[in-house]
Amino acid sequence: MSFRRFSKYICALSLAAACTITTMGATLTDVTSSHWAYSSIVDLEERGVMALTSSGQFFPNQTMDYFEIADVMAKATGYVDVDIATNVDETFKAQIKANYEKQKATLATYAAKYSTWNSAYNKQIAYLLGRGYISTSDLDKFITKTSSGEVKNIVTKEELAVLVVRLLEREKTATSTYTTTGFKDESSIQVANRPHMAYLKTLGLITADASGNSNANMKVTKALCAKMISSALKIKESTSSNSGSGSLADTNQDASLVTITKVLTKNTSEYYMCLKNSNGEVKYYSIKKTTKILDASGNEVAITKLELGSQAKVNINTENGTDYITSIQLVNSNTTDSNAGNTTDNTTGNTTDNTGTTTQTTTVTGTLLEKVSNGIIRLSLSNSAAKAYVLSDDCSITLNGTTVTADRLSISDAITLTVKNNAVTSIVATTGTGSLTSNGQITEKKLSGAGYVFTVKQNGSTSIVTIPDSAEVTRNNKSVDLRDIRIGDTIKVTKKNGIVTGVEATGVRSTVTGTIKEIHIAQTSKVLVNVNNETKTYILGNDVEMYNNYEKEFITVRDLHLGQEVTLLLDSEEVISLDVEDTSTSVNLMGTITNVGKNYSYIDVLVDYDYVTGESKVYKRIEVDSDTHITLNGKKQNRSILEEDMEIVINYKYLDDTVPEKILVIQ
């Protein structure tokens, strides 16, 4: 098999396995056919995306950092080492080389920024940058600088989900169709990653565990990576008409018959257009306002006159990683040309032109929920449901009988919309003078100049609510300050003339006990705690009081450590009191050194048992400081005595320390 790389320490290990399976001349020895990722591992091994060692080992439980994931992503999407590979299209080879030269300067800055930057993967990373699968800002996720040195970040499940959605070229679809992930632990998923997790859930690539959780923060193992990447490739192959390796430059795709299902405003010069192919696959593309659209007779048609549901032949071009529609040829003449002698049936709301084409017209009344933005208007309907509508380019707007622009409309205005083929063609508004009430649960809050901005979840959808300091606020039927409202509170908001005038919040107190699994230190800090074998995320409130019963002292969030037993007093979902009940003051790993890094700054160790992952016989890279206490025969030694095949005991003061306190060499 071509393009395999084997690291020195992986080749050295040989493990026994329950059964052996032969694939592509290599024998898979450490994964049985009953393993949940077996078929995916075999698939990627056969594709040359993920390799076995010379002795047939895959190490399914070994975690993967960003460099290793980049290698897999690049190979999965067509990358080959053109300096080694043969039988590669010369044009594609030239594109890979040209792209690498283009990205070299950027990669050089990161190699200078991080001393542990792994330049061996630069060509794969350059390829991903050129294809648009990662951006320059993503490169800062590869390594984190800490007070004790640099750490190569292990990719989490939700981070891999983002890359898989990009591999599928469905990021726009994921973000535009997202409402909720449906996982019980949605609050623990980073907001930016939730659409990707939700989309992969719809495809079956991510499923909930027995408790309904996504476990988005779990570290990606080689087995999980193989499962997700292999499944994504099979989905992409089953829905794609282009089986080639692709191009770093513009890629012209053959015209195909599709159905136009939705048109949304993207910006002042572009739209999003949603197309559905014959397989039922739905995807959003960008289209420029200057792009020509021709009807069946060859006449040019305005994009705002398209009838949703029309069939067309389209051509797609990829520009800087974005798929653009470059031409549309309608195969029918369903347009909404208002100058074609239309007559309106006021009873049915249908419009029929002189060619017999029928256009559906509806009237919608409601109250404006928020300012019109990017051509989207959102109303609160009579049944309290919220719905968004897209404005056509030639939409007429009147406010109290006077023609105005959309920005003149205010929250709580009474609105009547005329909608033709899912696009708003006219708005009749009356200045709102009454109150608008909405309910929901707070999932996020941020301090603003004049109050707070809350993210509120209601009926599976989220909205942003700005509450000024002037609003009357009660919580649990007591008058309180706005800052006393907590994440997890259920609130009832009253607006008048578009301004929040009152808030009624309800919160519940509770106590939980568990073990700290993760700590996120930020403007709003969080702790992930294992409670009754379920990991839950809790927000550390601004007024949280922390006390270490073990050390008998008050502490801060930076004094917390993984593995500590804690008791939390919660007010809704915010922690207002945290007591450390017990802590592991010493954690030991035993293993064998398999590789010594440059200048002895790190060692690779095959450890008997990893307390972080709970796995046996796994590799770990151990950072070694110059002041790490190293002992041999009872005497303190310099780290330069460390060498391959030494058996050692590695001592950490705390479970989450990145650098050990002591290393004992066993004779």
TrEMBL record:
Transmembrane region positions? none
Instruction: Keywords in alphabetical order, please.
Output: Repeat, Signal
Family matches, as InterPro entries:
SLH_dom
Keyword Heme carried by entry: no
| Database matches in Pfam families | SLH
Provide the residue span(s) of the region labelled Disordered: 335-359
- Ranges for the SLH domain? 24-87
Task: Give the residue range of the signal peptide.
Answer: 1-26
Q: What's the name of the protein?
A: S-layer homology domain-containing protein
Q: Which organism is it from?
A: Candidatus Cellulosilyticum pullistercoris
